[in-house]
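thread: overnight batch results

M.L. [08:02]
morning all. the overnight job finished for the chain we discussed friday. pasting input first so we're all looking at the same thing
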Amino acid sequence: MTDKILVLVTCGSQKEARKIASALVGQRLAACVSEIGVPLSSTYRWKGKLESAKEFLLLIKTTKKRFDAVRDLVRKLHSYELPEIIALPIETGSRAYLDWIAASVKSR
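M.L. [08:03]
and the structure it wrote out:
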């Protein structure tokens, strides 16, 4: 098990997704943010009603140590009342890539 995580965030627009991605990488909270640029169809229950929406998915590569700051910045920039912010552990991976993630999110 590594200290690296993959954070999933869905956004209501491509513009919002790109704004969040740029802020996370710009502030060194994420090494890389990949955007699934084709809208996804999401179906969910919200405030007792069945809803559906087109969304854009962000795959955020970072460390467990940076998760709180990632979460806080996403909440600040996101338009949703309750944005999806889910962290999944990265069990293993290319040592060089994992080292790059660590180096990219270190504070200067």
